[in-house]
Amino acid sequence: KADIAMYLAKKSGKNNFKFYVHEQGSLLDRKFMLEHNLKQAIDHHEFYLEYQPKLELQTEHIYGVEALVRWKHPELGVISPAEFIPIAEESSLIVPLGKWILQEAGKQNKKWYDAGIRVKMAVNVSAKQFEDPHFVDTVHQVLSENQFPPQYLGLEITESVMQNIHQSTLILQELKKLGVKISIDDFGTGYSSLSVLSKLPIDFIKIDQSFVHESTTNPIAASLVKTIVEMGKNLHFELIAEGIEKKEQAEFLIENGCYRGQGYFYSPPLSLAEVELLLYKNQIWASIE
Ligand code: C2E
Ligand code: MG
Ligand code: MG
Ligand code: MG
Questions:
Q1: Each residue's pLDDT tens digit, 63-82
Q2: Does the interface predicted TM-score (ipTM) exceed 0.90?
Q3: How far is the CA of 187 from the CAs of 67, 121, 236, 245, 262, in angstroms?
Q4: Considering only CA atoms, which residue is closest to atom 22 of ligand 1?
Q5: What is the DSSP string of 27-52?
Q6: Within 10 A of 39 (CB to CB), how many other CB atoms are there?
Q7: Global pTM?
Q8: Three-state DSSP class for 80?
Q9: Cβ–ligand 1 contact at 263 (below 6 Å)
Q10: 174, burial (CB in 10 Å: exposed 0-12, middle 13-18, buried 19+)
Q11: Is the shortest distance between the CB of 126 and ligand 1 below 6 Å?
Q12: 160 lines ligand 1 (CB under 6 A)
């Protein structure tokens, strides 16, 4: 059925495909098609990474980048990870895809490290990938194939991995032995308990962008940010704010003790060529761990 949809879409011009599936009311067809195509997409080199700079807010020096995957689908154009990562998770294709992402980010990080660029690479890891029995081996392999100090690789996981707290703790301990850094992404949107969080070997907490966006307009969001920063300090986690879009938001964060961040105010995710231009031009790195 998806093949027929594809055929009709091709016939009527590529740009009409989305319209066509919507007309049919069959978003399911699009999902089915993406799931079906995901299997070959790695072999067909349809994925690529973009890199969003992470900065020390007070100096605006870059100290790292976050790798964000994109899928250049031959018919549908660039597809957002927000759409295809959940599909890859459902079908377990996230495991080979996530491995490719880690290897790609690892290779890139090695090139930059060897060129004297001192920025840390962070890679997003989905819950299913994290819980895969070979995950720690994959990280180990990436580190041994690309010789850079392990603290130059960070893994961003979400609070959802804490649903299986016993297993997650063991995996995190293994990862910490390898020397990589761990962040909790989208913090504040999940349901992790503070007592659990305090026992985990975590380095960074990323304040979810929904709080950051409203931090200067909504007093509740503002006090949530303050509370998260306070908690982070007490539990010895470093704080990172994501989704900084305005100068006022950056100022609010600095005033309240959050000194790292990323967001459109500084830079959107960049292509490899763009980020390299920035990194090679701007030879001052924030000297923070
Ligand atoms: P995330 O890890 O929380 O990444 C932040 C998302 O916010 C990215 O969207 C980024 O482009 C976007 N963003 C950054 N700054 C701003 C800003 O100032 N304002 C706004 N409105 N958005 C901003 P993106 O690239 O579409 O990724 C969405 C999500 O997809 C990610 O959220 C992450 O959960 C997932 N994802 C992306 N790449 C990967 C990957 O390689 N592996 C896995 N497992 N998940 C990934
Ligand atoms: Mg992330
Ligand atoms: Mg996030
Ligand atoms: Mg997110």
A1: 999 999 999 999 999 999 99
A2: yes
A3: 18, 19, 15, 18, 15
A4: 243
A5: HHHHHHHHHHHHHHHTTTT-EEEEEE
A6: 12
A7: 0.91
A8: coil
A9: yes
A10: middle
A11: yes
A12: no
